[in-house]
Amino acid sequence: ALAWLSAMPPSSAVIEVMPSNLPEFVACVDRWDHPRSLDSIYGGLSHLCGQHYLCMSNNESSEPVRDYWEGQANFRELPVHFSPHQLVKRVREAILIVQGKQKPHW
Questions:
Q1: What are the percentages of helix, strand and coil residues in the chain, rounded to 5?
Q2: Where are the extended beta strands (E) located within 1-106?
Q3: Non-local CB neighbours of 47 within 8 Å, separated by 6+ positions
Q4: Residues contacting residue 42 through CB under 8 Å, at least 6 positions apart
Q5: d(CA 3, CA 21)
Q6: For residue range 1-33, what is the model confidence (pLDDT) as tens digits?
């Protein structure tokens, strides 16, 4: 992850899409550059590389996450379903943020 983030120009934008059924220890805040995002893997790396970051968490996965510790299901392996409209909206925001026409807000 750090390799491609560090190759991006400063002030680029990273959008991560996560399943809705996340364990409590996973930080996924649906706001640009939210301070809580620093606790996530890509959010923290994005911050270190000077990138804007958003984690889209308002989607629905087709199955619930069961017991993480017994290996019955891993949230990283769940399918992710999201609204194309919502993704397009966030990509447009990313473009405006990168162009300096919109400030990230949380």
A1: 35, 10, 55
A2: 13-17, 52-56
A3: 33, 37, 38, 53
A4: 1, 5, 14, 16, 53, 55
A5: 28
A6: 567 888 899 899 999 988 877 777 888 889 999
Contact 102, 96 (CB under 8 A): yes
Query: pLDDT by residue (tens digit) across 62-99?
Result: 555 555 445 546 777 777 877 889 889 999 999 999 99
**For 32-55, b where at least 16 C-beta lie within 10 A, e where not — what string?**
bbbeebbebebbbbbbebebbbbb
- The structure tokens listed for 17 are 């899409």
Name the residue with tokens 């994005």. Answer: 46
Instruction: Label the pairing between strands 13-17 and 52-56.
Output: parallel
Q: Global pTM?
A: 0.80
| Residue 15, amino acid | I
Token pair of 72 as six digits: 């019955």
Measured between alpha carbons, how far is 10 from 97 in angstroms, rounded to an integer? 12
